[in-house]
Amino acid sequence: MTGRTGLGDMRSPATKGGRRREDHPQAPASPESTALDLQKRSELLWEAPPRPSRGSKPTMSREDIVQAAISVADQSGLAALTMAAVAERVGFTTMALYRYFPNKEALIDASVDAAMGTPPPRSGPHKGWRQEVQGWAYAKRAMLCARPWLAELPFVAAPHGPNWLSWHEALLEALADTGLSPEDLMDMLSVVHAYVSGASDTAISLARARSRGMSDELWAQAVGRDLCRAIHHSRYPRLSAILTSQSGGISDASPLPVRAGRPRTMEEGFAFGLERVLDGIALYIDSNEGA
Amino acid sequence: MTGRTGLGDMRSPATKGGRRREDHPQAPASPESTALDLQKRSELLWEAPPRPSRGSKPTMSREDIVQAAISVADQSGLAALTMAAVAERVGFTTMALYRYFPNKEALIDASVDAAMGTPPPRSGPHKGWRQEVQGWAYAKRAMLCARPWLAELPFVAAPHGPNWLSWHEALLEALADTGLSPEDLMDMLSVVHAYVSGASDTAISLARARSRGMSDELWAQAVGRDLCRAIHHSRYPRLSAILTSQSGGISDASPLPVRAGRPRTMEEGFAFGLERVLDGIALYIDSNEGA
DNA sequence: CGAAACTGTGTACAGCATACACTATTCATT
DNA sequence: AATGAATAGTGTATGCTGTACACAGTTTCG
Lengths: 291, 291
Known about the structure:
homodimer, mainly alpha, Arc Repressor Mutant, subunit A, Tetracycline Repressor, domain 2, 10 helices, globular, DNA-binding
């Protein structure tokens, strides 16, 4: 959900430029072709095509290209992640990349999974589900903030690569000692995942602004400004009341989420929310234990 | 967070095409210019420029253009939302749009806020925070699923328009009888918002697939396929165990989130998670009441 | 009336993903 | 060793994109 900034054009349903022999002008992509696309993408992500025996050897590996793509996105954001930019980084012409990936979408699929990495391994023994889930949540949030461009890509549910699965595996491991049924486990996984994703949006946005050279103060100011418009509108009585409720209200430079009184940092807000979510999960686990 | 599909190129940090007089080749956009951009965008969203007295009257209103943009995105997705497509819809040449909005970003800012609409008004009296928040959550989820392209835009925290604020206002109203402090209210708002956003990603992705003409079965199949790859990998023992845990494991056509045994629908999964979150919030409210 | 300010049009352009034709390379088969 | 097929990377061209700029027509103020 939610606000947005720099974004490069990605993953068009129909191919973007170029010609397409059988493109019906307005057809919304036939179900079959779309489904096949998803399958192809998934296969490309999971199955390395066999190295052909004939012909000259490739200079680079797919992994090299992916690393180049990631470093471009890390340095300059998703909008800068163009085939030309990646090609230049590896010392290729643009078209050479198409020997490694059939299109930009496939390259991004691979880059996303690689950039996600794997969750940090647990150091000691299992410390109990609550602490383990907390650790997972912070790790995931940190990963997203470290590569804010990952969150700029719209969710399509598929394809999901090896690393994506490994984050899920880790969360299931964190929940190992809860004694929940498989169905409940999957649901809990969804809850935690949903909260962490949703709650990280703001931090990710800040990370993005930072990487574009914007100071934290400037960013907070920009975000606070919109919120503060509520103050002068009768349409937002409660928001207005909260924003003016304490200590002289909100200065223009107040951090976001804007808070009167003792200001809480974004991290504190995340931790606070996570505690609520974990409390709710704990309640369910406890009530289940007797059964 | 999350997977992804068709997406149109949007909101580049530096303007996309065209020339830019003072474009330093690699400059990451100076802090000042970025901040000014955000301020300009916010102003465009909130302040209607005064109608000039001289010159011919505009044929359309900004609102007309926005509606055209929304209907293009509704019908054909975000990738199809191009200046040319919008112009054609209103019967203009492409360039005429620039008399109404300085650039595509501004048009999208306005379209996003308009498309978000306002939360449905409460019909009866306040039914207690829990039920009210629940209603809000379902309304927001429904809104996002109805316009899945909204969730394809990456979050930038700013600018936030009038309707965006109105959703927040409504959530605060739902929380009115909790007796929470302003700071706690804002945090609770963040928690609920985060869960709803994050937990709707999958449903939104399905909605997007649907609007592209993909059947639910096909979509579920595509999503399930990746998950099921875990089964054959020793790297994902827990995921694998869950997926094979019951009733012959997961068929290729199983719905997502994939669940063994009694399958739960996506909506049930959302409801389940929401209950956990609300439980956690309730716990906090109750423990606060004594204090 | 005429100048100023505005509206919508036409044209131009750089950047994008990518189709296609090409040369150079390297192995498998003879 | 010689030959031919499959491959790697290059070069060029195309359609689409957002948008700068110059223009023609319209309206209103001085």
